[in-house]
Write the structure tokens for this entry.
Amino acid sequence: MSERAERLAAAARERDLDLLLVSGEPNVRWLTGFTGSSAVAVLRVAADAPGGVFVTDFRYVTQASEQVPPLWDRRQATQELLGAGLGEHFPVWDGPGLPRVGFDDARVTVAELERVRDAIGDRAELVPAAGLVERLRELKDSGEVSRIREAAHLADHALTEVLGRGLVGRTEAQIGLDLEVTIRRHGAEAISFPPIIASGAHGALPHAVPRATVIEPGVLVTIDWGAQLDGYCSDCTRTFAAGAEPGPEERAIYDLVLEAQQAALAAVRPGPLGREIDAVARDIITAAGHGEHFGHGLGHGVGLEIHEGPRISRLGETALAPQMTVTVEPGVYIPGLCGVRIEDLVVVTETGADVLNTLPTALQVVD
Ligand code: ZN
Ligand code: ZN
């Protein structure tokens, strides 16, 4: 953890910060190892004094003493954490002037910021500094990659078991519940998001909620699911043919999405920007006349959060680098007919990409 604190302090120094308020569960967890839901860390940015103050509330004192290393001065607040509680434990500053204190303007609410101002406004100059932790979190260490890989394998095994019980004749909601329970039974601590099970024309809704609708033979069924293991998420999508080969129009859409997905996967390596990888898939889909039916980005980072940096979309300005874990998930959605999405989770390697999912991408007919 101290290595992470040092890298974060270095990033904060580049912004001329003296202290950095780290709030938000995934960021606090990444930095300190604390897995509870209520804590704020105040990182000292000076190169000669890494670490800082870790503030939690009564409910988590024991947990913090077990999880958070002594690099952090662990304190218990008696009042609201992002507010008077922070004021109780804000580090004494003996430098010239007020310390420049970065806060996470992407996560701290307007109300919390008001309370923080009331608590420490006369002792600190508050500076918006969102994204510092997130940028470091984009690069996973080998332990993080192993957990994500394990979560992906677990999710694959769970879906394989569920498919063995069949798709045709069950409702989307039944499949979704079966999948959730099976993921947990295989050892995941949670699902990484509520699974999407979308059959037939409903597949044209990229984030469809499973319905009490029976899956009919001959339709396509899109399943997007993931497992969470030790805090880390997996994310995968496959589109199946229920009971029989689909019609020629659906088959053509499937082949197009698969071609785009394989081309984009082959383009993943250190160097290209997220938007350049997005363009590889988007150009293929657009050339086939379906550009308007691919309305979302190609992919996203995955880690402690199911959606995190870097963006692999038209807005992706981050260059891919080894140890990033990202998805590649083009989709084509034809209103009133069907939707197809194929998603793999990969880790960027020195020379390309290592796909963490094990399920085939060729169209499978599932009874
Ligand atoms: Zn997904
Ligand atoms: Zn995804």
